[in-house]
Amino acid sequence: MKNLKSLSLIFSFILTTTLYSQSHSHISAQKKISYPDIDGYQTLSSDLHIHTVFSDGNVWPTIRVQEALLEDLDVIAMTEHLEYQPHQKDLPHPDRNRSYEIALKEAASHNLIVIPGSEITRSAPVGHNNAIFISDANPLLDKEDPKTSFNEAKKQGAFVFWNHPAWYRQSSKGIPIFSDFQQKMIQQGKLHGVEVINEGAYSEEAFALALEEGLTVLGNSDVHDLIGWDYLDKHQTHRPITLIFSKDKELKSIKEALFEGRTVAVFNNFWVGKEEFVIPLLKNSLSVENPHYLDQSEVLELTLINHSSSDLLLENQMPYSFYFNPRVFTVPAMGSITLQIKTLEQLERIELKFKALKAYTAPKDQAVVSWEVTVD
Ligand code: ZN
Fold first, then answer.
1. What is the mean pLDDT of residues 270-293?
2. Which residues of 249-279 are buried (b: 16+ CB within 10 A; e: fewer)?
């Protein structure tokens, strides 16, 4: 009896360690974030909302750079709260640019762009807003009138976006309260974007607002602790990111892309963005290999390859059914799936058509892609 018990203990230990090492290797294999370019633009992965000990975060700025390098991000923005300084007693710092300066120095020998920014922090209806591409954070600090901060941001040519507008601590229904303040800021060219994804929270209403008001769609981590703990360990996924479609990897081009709204927000295998960017991203994320008929049959077999870091959940939109798979299936991130399509006759060409069920082009619409493939 005793032996049996210890044997089962050993067995469960082996099972646990095997399971652990499997899931662990899965994470490390997926650590690098990668998405294909689209026509005319490079696809840059970014996180534009990051905190350190220089506001209410819990790590030094150099760690933020190392985390970004680990996930292979192209761009980060340092966005400390200007006003909220809980570590100030231990870490007095009259210069609000320090976090950026330290991160910039750390990133200097790496292929990572660091953008200077600040978070303008107020209660509703103003809420929290990030100003990035600023030249000096200090003049933005005005504890009284938020308009002074917005005016200064505009003077510095900053790109400004509304953070987590659906945050339940500022809007108890979890729905953005679009006030006169935001309206005025947009009219005056002082507010240009909105986070539709912040931490793990996705706001359909913020996405609708972005489309209605012509605001740039953003997804960011707003990280305060370690990225590895908050996302890779806890959720087995990457941080929320903003894919930026930029002419090149220069600061000037990235800024231009953000002002022109060339982005897709990505988190946990789902995408949110304007159709004109989601569709080409999806199209370039998929390719087909070896389309051929099985023996003398009318069953066409092909391999669908996914070149992105997101698992793609697709629904068959063709007039044909599959031989093995149901009509909804997943092509794993950086992986592939083999499909057998019952075309009823041997075709020389076939139009593949899929709906990506987690790629949103409007709050209730998902992207559909189709392309023609010649059979071998
Ligand atoms: Zn924040």
1. 97
2. eeeebbbebbeebbbbbbbbbbbbbbeebbb
